[in-house]
Amino acid sequence: MENLEKFKVAIIGAGRWGFNHVRTANSILDPKNITVFDSRPEIEEKISELNSEINFTTNFNDVLDDKSIKAVIIATPAETHFEIAKKCMESGKNALVEKPITLLSKEAEDLHKLSIKLNLKLMVGHVLLYHPAILRIKEGLKQGEIGILQYIYSNRLNLGAIRSEENILWSFAPHDISVIQFFIDENPISIKACGSDILQDGIEDTTITYLDYPGKVSAHIFVSWLHPFKEQRLIVTGDKGMYVFEDSAKTEKLKLYEKGFKKVNGNYEKFDNQYKVIEFENKMPLTEEQLHFYESIINDTQPRTDGKHAFEVLQVLNKATESLRS
Ligand SMILES: NC(=O)c1ccc[n+]([C@@H]2O[C@H](COP(=O)([O-])OP(=O)(O)OC[C@H]3O[C@@H](n4cnc5c(N)ncnc54)[C@H](O)[C@@H]3O)[C@@H](O)[C@H]2O)c1
Fold first, then answer.
1. CB atoms < 10 A from the CB of 266, how many?
2. Helices 43-50 & 18-28, crossing angle to 10 degrees?
3. Domains of the chain
4. I need a surface site. Which of 5, 86, 115, 148 has the fewest CB within 10 A?
């Protein structure tokens, strides 16, 4: 992309996930134009092992005061996102904030409004919306490849890593909610959730969330970190066929099944044909996400996962949490 040679970014928080952002930025940008800010000084060694030309600081002001840094990627724990993003935007920086954008809907709304007021890009790291398979399904839905959309379900299951600052819903489900919202392009009219806190009191290890959307489209999300193996399976059902996307599978990740029921002379008849494998471009979602962020700043375009999308996903998370607690 044009202008990327001079593009400067600061990555705030280079822990488990943030380091992936640093690695990705290192593959896209000039390392001298990357600054990493983390409050833990020991992170510096890991960064310089990756590329000694990347700048490192433990002082937030080094980022805020550098007017040549127009973009920040915030990958600190969720409870710090609001304050850090607000300060960065008030210093004139466009922000890509990791999921969940904030903990409270009000904070997400405030950041969204601030980005509009200051004419800055605000984007949330819902990385699946940059996955070529998800974009392929969206395209197929638009073209009516599976007919009328009926039901979506998503399983995101694994053994660990357990978090104590948030439950499984907040840890895993933002991805599934963002994908479902992207496919349906509406907000749910009803949300019900239930779950079990097995390992730590009050922190659910497993949850199931049911979502009803306008037009008789429904969805459910099953997430757990107490599951014997990794399973990331998304099923999108229409009246003419079904997509199955298994990101955890080694091959044949995206399939289209021509299966279902059709009404013949008042009775339902099953159709049960073979599946076909759908090929999609082999692109790294996180690279696509960062490129999309940089492009939106350079070309002044609206990011796919903008502040409005982030706010809507957060509202679903908050309503699901209310339902869990009741
Ligand atoms: N998009 C994804 O698929 C994905 C995957 C995993 C995590 N995440 C998100 O990324 C974020 C970080 O998660 P993680 O697992 O990397 O956490 P982590 O605890 O491993 O890393 C957080 C880093 O931030 C630093 N930090 C904390 N507070 C700071 C502050 N005030 N200023 C500067 N640095 C600070 C810590 O020192 C640490 O290095 C979370 O919001 C998480 O939900 C996203």
1. 5
2. 30
3. 4-122 (3.40.50.720), 129-284+316-325 (3.30.360.10)
4. 5
Distance CA 167, CA 173 (A): 10
Query: Whose Cα sits closest to atom 25 in ligand 1?
Result: 13
Q: Three-state SS for 239?
A: coil
**12 sits in which H/E element:** strand 9-12
Distance linking the first and last C-alpha atoms of the chain? 50
**In the chain, pLDDT over 90 holds for what percent of residues?**
94
Asked whether 285 and 275 are in contact (CB, 8 A), the reply is no
Residue type, position 183, single letter: F
- Indicate the top mutation candidate among 17, 99, 131 to test ligand 1's pocket, ranked by most ligand atoms within 8 A of CB: 17
Distance CA(91)–CA(274), nearest Å, equals 56
Dihedral sign, Cα of residue 131, residue 132, residue 133, residue 136: positive
The answer, yes or no, to whether any atom of ligand 1 lies below 6 A from the CB of 161, is no
Quick check: 75 and 81 in contact, CB under 8 A? no
4, exposed or middle or buried, with CB in 10 Å at 0-12, 13-18, 19+? Answer: middle
Residue whose tokens read 């494998």: 277
Residue 161 has pLDDT above 90, yes or no: no
User: How far does residue 263's CA lie from ligand 1's centre (Å)?
Assistant: 51
Three-state SS string over 168-229 comes to: HHHHHHHHHHHHHHHHHCCCCCEEEEEEECCCECCECCEEEEEEEECCCEEEEEEEECEEEE
Going by the DSSP 8-state scheme, the letter that residue 127 receives in this structure is: G
Rg, Å, the chain Cα set: 21
Is the Cα torsion angle 23, 35, 301, 317 positive or negative in sign? Answer: positive
**Which pLDDT tens digit goes with each residue over 209-261?**
999 999 999 999 999 999 999 999 999 999 999 999 999 899 999 999 999 99
What are the two backbone dihedrals, phi and then psi, of residue 294, each rounded to the nearest 5 degrees?
Answer: -60, -40
Given a contact cutoff of 8 angstroms between Cβ atoms, the answer to whether 85 and 65 are in contact is: no
